[in-house]
Amino acid sequence: MARRRNRWWWGGLGFSAGLLLLFMVLPVASLFLTLGADALWAGVKHPAVAPALWLSLKTTLVSLAVIVVLGTPLAWLLGRHPGRWSRWVETLVRLPAVLPPAVAGVALLLAFGRRGLLGSWLADMGLTVAFSSAAVVLSQVFVAAPFFLQSATAAFRNLDGDQLTVARTLGASPARVFFEIALPMARPGLIVGAAMGWARALGEFGATLMFAGNLSGETQTMTLAIYTTFESDLRAAQAMSVILVVVAFGILYLLSAPAEQLARAAHESRD
Amino acid sequence: MSLAIDLDLHRGSFHLRVTLPPHAGTTVVVGPNGAGKSTLLECLLGVQRPEGRIELGGQLLLASDDDVDVPPEARRLGYVPQRYALFRHMTVLRNVAFGLEGGPRAERADRARALLDELGIGHLAERMPAALSGGESQRVALARALSIEPRALLLDEPLAALDVGARRRVRDFLASRFREVGVPTVVVSHDLADAVALAERVVVLEAGRVVQVGSVDALREQPASPFVSAFFSDPPPQEEAGVA
């Protein structure tokens, strides 16, 4: 009865929620529904696909390693030893996540390009970064690091400070406290951050195109290969898109486990 | 062994200034919220870096004039924080073995097990902290603090997280433990019953200053501040109401 009286309310809710859901599902579904298994296989065999897939895998894993190895200490400092400077630093390291990709590309070129701030100096030593696989990695690190840093910083910040103090009083050095208490306790947050960073690196497009170029086998990652084959062979572009969607969905699905763990840990430390 | 404290800490607008003569037994520090009780413990632990001197059994833990500041991991102070802060990703046994140094892993485990047995919680060894009751967690935290054979014990509100029934039991347990361990012990509490059961000396801290030092009886007879007289008023403010 209440339901009938409020049918405009429920109807309105259902209509707008359904409309958005449909809008978001339809494009993804089309990727799958308009491609038969044979066409998918033919697309996968397109000569651009294998090198792009391999390059994407290689570069994103290197980027992820760089981000985690260098980002974890920074996140620890930001999370556990905040100072006057930390708000500035935090804003700075978040910036690449919201910068337009074209701006990131220009910025990277101006820093590491042949005539860039650091690039000209590197060029004198015989090192060219731009338009190489290294440039792909730099682009990915630049845009993806913020995702890891944000999650990792929050994870370290939310640790129970008393546990860290107790560990010290039990004779543990700061390094031992970090490795044996802080890292395991912050692990769900670090995993979520690493996965989000990896997904972002995999999807990186604009900065890579401008700073690394679009050379097959060297700088042409999956997203660039999709962009390139789109005009000549739609099936290949579609096949690669399907692969990326499946990977992205897999990451998000696997992440729901640590994310839940994270929420539970946050709840426990509050009570 | 006795503990002597003379320290000075500025943190923003907060100023902690505590001077206490050497004392070997159990000191209960009471005071209103924000008086600096937990900060005092942090100074003793070496987590805060105050000016002044802290001397424990003839050893200087802190002497800022002489550039002495022993880091927390070398002070050998047993610490039981307010919510026990058990390491949640380790079993009870590994919690207690964390501070044991030297010897093979099996030997450390044996020593940790012996300590758990001594405190009557040997059966909890393989449990995870999340599966413990408040009273059990408290004993594990105490076992962990005792594992390093501490030169002093520091406890922050050791009973606040327990329900009233458990509180009385644990209080008696702690009193007998402190006597047995026989090292200087500092207990932060805002519960009068803790002071009565545990304290050989009560220190009243208000707004970062020591307002009164003495036995429970001395404080009851001549309260030096409204807080102290309220502390001893009937009914005692904390015991019935429980802790917020």
Q: What distance lies between the first and last C-alpha atoms of chain A, to the nearest angstrom?
A: 40 Å
Broad shape of chain A: globular
Helix-and-strand structural type of chain B: alpha/beta
Q: Please tell me the CATH architecture of one domain in chain B by its name.
A: 3-Layer(aba) Sandwich
Mean pLDDT of chain B: 90
CATH class of the largest domain in chain A: Mainly Alpha
Low-pLDDT residue intervals, each spanning 5 or more residues of chain A: none
The helicity of chain A comes to: over 70%
Strand order of the largest sheet of chain B: 7-8-9-3-10-11
DSSP strand (E) fraction of chain B?
25-35%
Order of helices and strands of chain A: HHHHHHHHHHHHH
Percent in helix of chain B? 25-40%
Task: Report the largest inter-chain contact.
Answer: A-B, 18 and 29 residues
Tell me the distance between the termini of chain B. 36 Å
